[in-house]
Amino acid sequence: MKKIKKKIFFSILLIFSLACIVYLSLQVNQALQEYKHWKSRESVLKKELEVLREEAREHQHFLDRLRRNPDFQDEVARKELGYGHAEEWLYRFPEDSTD
User: Which residue range forms the structural domain that includes residue 43?
Assistant: First the structure.
């Protein structure tokens, strides 16, 4: 009788252990998949951050030139804002639309 109880106990313990191993394996697999997802997301965000930093450097360079260089200020005012000197005549033509 004791042998049978021992066998039943070890059988239940073995089944429970196997169930725990399967459950933990599934949880580890799910965690690994989530980790891979976030690692790939991290690499995409790092690339995007580098692009944005480069863009910020370009804007900063533009602003520095605009603050320090009067010739560049004049060029930007003419090109972007359509300004000119008091003695100049400005002609504005409509942009061609090829619709």
Answer: 2-81
Please indicate, yes or no, if residue 22 is contained in any of the structural domains.
Answer: yes
CB 76 within 8 A of CB 66: yes
Residues 6+ apart with CB under 8 A from 92: 82
Confidence bin at 29 (pLDDT 50/70/90):
very high
Inside any domain, residue 59: yes
Tell whether pTM > 0.70.
no
Query: Which position has the token pair 């965000």?
Result: 45
**94 within a domain of the structure (yes/no):** no
Identify the residue with better confidence: 9 or 95. 9
Rounded Cα gap, residues 70 and 48, in angstroms: 34
DSSP state of 45: H
Q: 3-class SS at 99?
A: coil
Q: Where are the beta strands (DSSP E) in 1-99?
A: none
The domain tally of the chain equals 1
> Which pair of tokens denotes residue 55?
């863009």
